């Protein structure tokens, strides 16, 4: 926890934030340097969606086996789970700064491994390393920002991390699009991720440790020196006192509930207020994941191609709309969250998500029922170029249409002029 708990930003706080950072650019430097961890998180989320299109082109086994595609995508998430679980312990033992530096090193190694990968399993290994780095950074970056920011603008500073996450997703689509014609395509897309990690590593070397962590280690003079660079001269002692009181209360609570994991869990479940808060927090997080946004971000270009767009670069360009609106939504939420409240804004967002999912379901259902039939003569006339074995060996070719081909992972439907679309009436299947 930070002094007084985690404060979310309101309009007044953003005004104060602008005033404070104008007086002392050092504060913004702290926030943006640590916030690059959010950028790494967002970039990793978005970059694989475009890179996967070209990985499938380079490795036939990945193109033909969907479980390999799913593994390449999901191993980063698995690594992030482990990284986030270890991040808390690392933060307490090593400090926030060293933890971020270590996460950057792991992320850089993962990006390099993916960029030079000679086989799919090496890409998977790189994805695991990247996930570990992202998992650690995703929890450490906002923690460092909150502890190294003045209390009056803490919420506004922490909000920059969320903005950088969605900004990183949008940036990943732009970079994917930029490398569609470059030799190596997906290798550049994945390898470029090392650059922000290197940048954050260099910037963090010149920044101090979290003042709160230093105070807990008994380093009061170092804490005071750092606070003097963050706070106004007349606020330093007041913040020192607030930090002292907060940490003493925290240690007292730890003494009551115990220091072991078992004792802490027992205390959580026996406290009605904490238990209800835990239920609410877990429910919100689960619902957020089950709406499908991660699937959209990871497979957006693939989904666009399933809608009939064959070109990888065109699919990536259209996917920019999704990531761009995601970033815009983050900005809107930052502006409106304190005007309308957290609960109302969340419920309104869920209604919009529900409506969007219904529209998508109806659209794809209609496409399935009205997809044009496949012409046997047009398809089989391409001989060896027709690689959809499921179609050529089907007992009833007349019953097939474009959507069925997509479900069989044949690739796309196209007419004899190779104009790929779900709208052409005379089609063949190729991959």
From TrEMBL:
GO terms assigned for molecular function: myo-inositol:proton symporter activity
PANTHER family: INOSITOL TRANSPORTER 4, PROTON MYO-INOSITOL COTRANSPORTER
UniProt KW Transport keyword: yes
Keyword annotations of the record: Membrane, Transmembrane, Transmembrane helix, Transport
Membrane topology category: Multi-pass membrane protein
Main location: membrane
GO CC annotations, alphabetized: membrane
Matching Pfam families: Sugar_tr
Subcellular location as annotated: Membrane
Protein name, entry field: Inositol transporter 4, variant 2
Highest taxon listed in the record's lineage: Eukaryota
Sequence intervals crossing the membrane: 30-55, 67-89, 101-122, 128-146, 158-179, 185-207, 278-300, 315-337, 344-364
Protein family per UniProt: Belongs to the major facilitator superfamily. Sugar transporter (TC 2.A.1.1) family.
Domain Major facilitator superfamily (MFS) profile, residue spans: 30-431
Native source species: Pisum sativum (Garden pea)
């Amino acid at each position: 926890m930070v002094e007084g708990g985690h404060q979310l930003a309101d309009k007044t706080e953003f005004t104060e934030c602008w005033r404070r950072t104008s007086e002392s650019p050092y504060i913004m430097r702290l926030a943006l340097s640590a916030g690059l961890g959010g950028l790494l998180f967002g970039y990793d989320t978005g970059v694989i969606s475009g890179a996967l299109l070209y990985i499938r082109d380079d490795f036939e086994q990945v193109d033909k086996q969907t479980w390999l595609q799913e593994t390449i995508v999901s191993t980063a998430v698995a690594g992030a789970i482990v990284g986030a679980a270890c991040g808390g312990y690392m933060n307490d033992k090593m400090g926030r700064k060293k933890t971020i530096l270590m996460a950057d090193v792991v992320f850089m190694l993962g990006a390099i491994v993916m960029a030079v990968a000679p086989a799919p399993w090496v890409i998977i290994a790189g994805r695991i390393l990247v996930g570990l780095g992202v998992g650690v950074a995703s929890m450490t970056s906002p923690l460092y920002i909150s502890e190294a920011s003045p209390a009056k603008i803490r919420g506004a500073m922490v909000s920059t991390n969320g903005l950088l996450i969605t900004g990183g997703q949008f940036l990943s689509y732009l970079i994917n699009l930029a490398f569609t014609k470059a030799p190596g395509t997906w290798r550049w897309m994945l390898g470029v991720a090392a650059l922000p990690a290197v940048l954050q590593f260099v910037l963090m070397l010149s920044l101090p440790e979290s003042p709160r962590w230093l105070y807990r280690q008994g380093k009061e003079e170092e804490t005071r020196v750092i606070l003097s660079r963050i706070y106004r001269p007349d606020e330093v002692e007041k913040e020192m006192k607030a930090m002292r009181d907060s940490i003493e209360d925290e240690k007292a609570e730890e003494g009551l509930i115990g220091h072991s994991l078992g004792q802490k869990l027992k205390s959580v479940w026996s406290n009605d207020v904490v238990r209800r808060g835990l239920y609410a927090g877990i429910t919100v997080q689960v619902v957020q994941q089950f709406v499908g946004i991660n699937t959209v971000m990871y497979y957006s270009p693939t989904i666009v191609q399933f809608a009939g767009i064959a070109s990888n670069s065109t699919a990536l360009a259209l996917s920019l709309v999704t990531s761009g609106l995601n970033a815009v939504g983050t900005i809107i939420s930052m502006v409106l969250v304190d005007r309308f409240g957290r609960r109302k804004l969340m419920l309104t967002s869920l209604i919009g998500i529900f409506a969007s999912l219904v529209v998508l379901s109806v659209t794809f259902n209609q496409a399935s029922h009205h997809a044009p039939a496949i012409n046997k003569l047009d398809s089989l006339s391409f001989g060896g170029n027709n690689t959809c074995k499921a179609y050529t060996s089907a007992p009833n070719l007349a019953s097939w249409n474009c959507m069925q081909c997509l479900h069989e992972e044949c690739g796309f439907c196209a007419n004899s002029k190779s104009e790929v679309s779900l709208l052409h009436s005379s089609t063949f299947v190729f991959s």
